[in-house]
Amino acid sequence: MREQVVVVMGASSGIGRATAARFAEQGAKVVVAARGEAGLRSLVEEIRAAGGDACAEVADVTDPAQVQRVARRAVTEYGGLDTWVHAAAVLLVAPFEQTTPEEFQRVIDVNLMGQVHGAMAALPHLKRQGGALIHISSMGAKRGVPLQTAYCASKHGLDGFLETLRTEVRREDLPVSVTNVMPATINTPLFDQARTKIGVKPVAPPPIYQPDVMVDAVLYAAEHPVRDLVVGGSAKALILGEKLAPRVMDALMARFGFEAHDTGEPKPADAPDNLFAPLDAYNTARDGFDGSAWPRSLYTFLRRQPLVNRIPLAAEALAVAGFVLKPLIR
Questions:
Q1: How far is CA 260 from CA 90, 147, 230, 299, in A?
Q2: What is the greatest pairwise CA distance in the chain?
Q3: Is 151 a catalytic residue?
Q4: Model-wide pTM > 0.90
Q5: Could you say which of 78, 151, 209, 299 is catalytic?
Q6: What is the pLDDT of residues 236-250, one digit of tens each?
Q7: C-alpha–C-alpha distance, residues 32 and 40, integer Å
Q8: Residue in 75, 235, 39, 277 with CA at minimum distance from that of residue 20
């Protein structure tokens, strides 16, 4: 890790912020990027105060020229680029019939096209000396969730994009790993910053995991070439359920998927959100679910063990077992 130069897109809050801080703690040189300058400034100050090395570049992932500038900053500042972590994302929680074309397009532009712009900017640098493209997706890439039509569409698109990109990289025999990281619900300010039309601050289906569970997976992917990483046994159980019994999952989502978003905390539709512009009020890694968030995931821990990775069926079984036995592994 001490030999790496790492770019983290979407680093001002949430998964991106926690990931950048951990990379710097492990000795990597880090370039952090996001739309919000205040969040980046405070993050760089925190990293440097802890003895790390970081610099910031303000950039909107929907603008390919700005994303290209982030990649060039890594090369000019630190002499190269080894790992690109793309975590920038926005969330809209609303019935499809209440979603405007502009809102739907914006989610696609940030969550899908932003990731495409990131890969376009990073790949020319990574292919010279080898490295890792790590794209933060969601369990929504494999299974749609009610009230998240735009978000899940963007993540499904990302899954298809990465599958295709991975085959092209392999065909050219490039020394670049392409990893799709698909987390369960993570305790980040994504939900505070989301645009919502359901009358409350939203959340995604439980259980909720702390950001550290996600960061462990990202750092693993930076040092070990891996195709896909599902974070959280509940996410793996959901994806496995979709693969084996999609109609059953449809029924479960119709019955429980809507209420799963309700935190009981009022939030009107006109409340500030970060869909089109950054918010400076949530420049933290965690949200307010500390009391209920799981600090670890047995499944994610096991997925990082070489022996388990050689026995895929065992990993699938452990995912379901870990989710069912969740009270015992908190």
A1: 19, 10, 21, 22
A2: 53
A3: yes
A4: yes
A5: 151
A6: 999 999 999 999 999
A7: 7
A8: 39
